[in-house]
Fold this protein.
Amino acid sequence: MPSRHSAVAAGALLLLPALLPMVGADMKDTDDGGAQMEVYDSAAAVQQGAPTSGGGSGDRWMRHPMCREWITVEFTGQMFTGSWNEDIPDCVTQVPPPPDLCPAGEVALEPWWRSRDLGGGVYGPWRQIGGFQCGSDILLAQVEQAWASMPIAPNTYEVQPEGGYAVAELGVNLIVDTNPRTMDVTLLGTPVIIRAVATQYTWTNTDGTVWTSTSPGRPYDQGGEPFTFPRVPEHRTTFTLTTTWRGEFSTNGGATWREAPGTATTTSNSTTVHVYNPHAHRVDCDLNGNCINGTQGGGNQKTVYDPDGDGILNYLIPDNKIDDYLAARDEGRYWTDPERKNTD
C-alpha cells in the first residue's frame, strides 16, 4: 500500500467543463420565477467544493451571487449582514469576482451559502460561507484527495541470474517493472484518470548496502549492469525495493496529463540471494568425477554451488535453515534435513 502522500505545489491546471448537478441536489425556484437555484445536502456540497468543515451532515448548501443592493454604506464603511432568515433574495446587480481570480477563460463560481440543520425539519438562516471559487482549484482538491487514497500495487522485479544465487564478483542484475498504475474516478461529474508513475528506486540489502536510482535497470542483453559483492565468505543476503511514485491526472482519456499534488511510496516483496565467493585452485578431477590419472573420483565433487561437496546445492537450502546448515558444515557435521527451496 502507498504511504500517505506529501503535498507539493501543482502546475497550471486545465479549464473545467461546467460543473454538473450532483446527487443530493434539489432545485429551488426563485420568488420571481427566475433562474432555479440548486440546494445541496452536505455530502453533495463537499463534492462540489463547499467548505463544510464545522458544519452538520443535515445542513443545506447553495451557491448564490452577492448583490450590491444588500450593501449599505455607513460611517463605519460598507455593511452587509450576510444572513437571510427566509429565501436568499435575487440580485438586481451582482457583485463581480475580483479581476484575474481564475485562469483566462474560466468563470468564477459564486460563493457558498449554508442553512444549518436545527433538527425536526427546521433550518437556520442562510449565511454566506466563503467567497468566489475557481473550478480548477476545486478539481485539484478533489484529485489530491483521490490520489492520496489511491491503492498502488508495489513493483515486481526480475533477478538475474534467477534461482536465488550469485557469484560475488559477477553479482546480480535487478530489473524493475515499469508499468504505471492507473485508477478511474469521476470528480465533479468529470471522468478522471489518475496515474502513478515510478520515479525513483531505492534498494537495500542485509549486507548494509543502500543505493538509489532513477533507472529501473535493464537485462544483461540490453546493457544491464549488475550489483556486485565484495570478496566475503559465502552467505545469504536479502534485497528490498522501495519505489517512489509521482501522481498525474487526465480529464481527456489520457491524451494529456497534469501533475497531481504529492508523492507516494511502496515497498515490494523482498528476495534472498545466496552469494558464493569461489577461489581458483587446481583440481585433479572435473565436475563429473573424471580424474587426470584415469580413475573415477569417489563421492560428490566440489562445485561452485556445492563448495563442500556434500551433494547439496547450498542456495536451495531454505532461508530459515541456512545458518544451521553452514554451522553444521563448519563443524564437520553432515546436514540431513531434506527440505529444499522451490525455484520453479
Notes: The longest helix spans residues 135-148. The chain has a mean pLDDT of 82. The CA atoms of residues 163 and 343 lie 5 Å apart. Residues 25-139 form one domain.
